[in-house]
Amino acid sequence: MPAQNVGRDRHGDTASVNLNGIANAPRVRRRDARVGLHKKNNEMLNQTLLYTLLLYGSAVSAALVALIMAQFWRRERHLAYLLWTLGFALAAVRYLLPSVTTARGETAILAGLAAEYASGGRGLLMLAGAWLFAGRSLPRASVLWMLLPLGWLGLAWAVGMASPWRALPLSLLGSAGYAALAWSFLMRQPDYRWHGHRFFALACGLMALHLLNYPLLHYSPWMPWGYAVAQGLHYMMAITLMLVWGRREQRLAAQALDAGERALQHVRHSHRREWELRTWTDTLLSQISDGVVICSTEGMVTGFNRAAERIFGYDAEQVLGQPVTMLAPPALHETQRHSLLRLSSRTLPGKVGSRPWEFTARHITGRLFPVEISVSDMEIDEERQFIAIVRDVSERRRQEEKLAYLADHDGLTGLPNRRCFERRLGEHLAGCQGGLLAFLDLDDFKLLNDSLGHKAGDAALRAMSRRLTVLAGENLLAARYSGDEFVLFVPQAAPDDEQDWVERLVAAVRQPIAFNGVEFMLSGSIGLAHFPEHGQDVEELVRSADLAMYEAKRAGKNKHDYYRPAMLAQLNHKAEIATLLKRLDPDRELWLAFQPRMRIDGRQLAGAEVLLRWRTPDGRTIPPDEFIPVAEETGQILRLGYWVMEQACRTLSRWPAQREPLVLSINLSARQLFDERLVERIEALRQRYHLSASQLEFEITESSAMRDMQDAVRVLSRLRALGYGLSLDDFGTGFSSLSHLRSLPVDTVKIDRSFIRDMEEDRHDRVLVASIIELAANLDLNVLAEGVETEGQLRLLDSLGCDDVQGYLVARPLNEEEFLRDILNAWAQRAMAL
After folding, report:
1. Which of 29, 211, 561, 595 could form a disulfide with 813 if both were Cys (CB 3.0 to 4.6 A apart)?
2. Distance CA 425, CA 439 (A)
């Protein structure tokens, strides 16, 4: 292989080398000509001492920058500084390599290639350092980027590219590296002045511009001065880096000095705060309301504040230096000593801490009282001490006991309340063979509150509780179950003794009660249930007695009754009816029956009473006396009552007109009577079906009006003024007050069937019926007798002056079609038979 000539370029930035890979004649001659020209130039440059000095000066300046950058890397351990150090080191190597190109052969070729590679490699290293300095990471394959300059050099050499243009991309890469370095330092400028970052960035920027001048300086007389410019810029970088380093060290030293001053001030402040804290702690311990007792690990008292003096009764001088056991009763001395030893065995100070627990303490007078105590430990004057926070909880204990008593007892009577009674009864039943539970409900207690006031009611409850307490004695359980309900449980006794006890209970309830000079008496309904026959547990036994009490109340009050299984069946039946009422579809399940009423004089048809009938979807017929009371209790009666009213008006409007207007009598429930929209609804129905007010009569009972007599009179007066008929149903039962009869604006009185049934044989019934008829006549009231079933009853009522009758003798209740066929269309034949 012929020797190759290696020449230095005039710019001094890269060395140009031409390598012949494959020999052919034309290319060899042209290449030899270029190599000869380069050799001539190199020989001419090597003779210039100034060129050599500038070349080595540039290498020294780049190496100086690399050394200073290495110090930055040693201080901050940032990989970017290491890459920049290697970049400037490659720049120094690049400036040294042109001195080797004076040699001949392979050495000169390799030196030229290395110089061009160093020019591109420093740019890559500086770019990578700037990337890391920006807080980003390099991929693992980034090392392979260093092979890019080698690939470019091999390709350019193979195609015979001229030296200036072959080195131009590598110079651009170096220029980008210096620009990135300048940008990195500009972005990380500190907040203090004269930091040097801007001057260093300026030098790097000028160096980036200088590397772009390579095409202009190549083979020009100014090429040696390119090294001079590079040398000057590198020296400028070194000086500005030393300025950055010096200002940074100065800043760090100032910060260290400032930190030392602050530390010294903190130490001085800490000593002052320690003294203040001790003073403040002593003042605090003397002022807080909780007692503080400090003792050593040997159990000797070393601290005793004013609150502790107040709690225990000792002065601090009496306690300091004494065993802490003097604050506890003798029975607890050994326990306290073991607790102190257990705390002392924990070797690490500050690790002792306990949740508050209650402890029995001893006062100086010997009185024992409860305290709440929590213990912790700390170093006081380099000695381990135990600090106990003590709080007298005597008052809290009394309050807790009071609250516990109030939670289990009635505040008015002092008797156990429902929760306490059920708990005690459960405990009692667990070891009891049998017994009797009495459930007492005071009759008409609301009337007492309304008439004499709630204070009188409270006095009655207190008096009743005292009597029940005396009656119960020590072996019985007595409690106030709810408002005016009391429960008592007596253990198993002989039947005679049990009956005697029940009679004494009834007598105790009926005893007079005096309040503010007024004496009144109460009665009670009592339900009785045996254990275990009527209930295996508390809930079942109380339910059985409660059912028996309600049965006694329904039987007329002021009675007592024993539980029977039929009562529960009846209750379940009522619950079933209530459920069916909620699901009721009136148009499919309900229908109306009409029972005619006859005027005795002339045997004329006076009208009919509207009766409600119910047939469930499964074909069962439920009597009115079963579902009407349940509907009253559940509130369904309003829906049923207005349905009946509308169906009756619709039916009456369809019937043919009679010579005498036919009157339909419709029952009003108590809920309907006090419905605010009752009159408006009745008027709306009458007008919708084009009826006159005289064709409708409304029946009420005295008991329903008594709920609010004043409001009832107001509503009935409005109906009477509009022309509607009003009748008082079941007169003679219940209260039957003459004052009510005088107050209520009714025009008809209906005698209950219970007086008519036996009036032919029973003289008393006959006298009562005659009295009612005479009384009504004197008050200008019409009289209607219900339940007339025999001709003898009809003749007797006719002789007594009764106006109208109703019953099976006239006709049984009929549906709409039957009433139209058998009554309206055939009344003349029926009247002749009567």
Report:
1. 595
2. 14
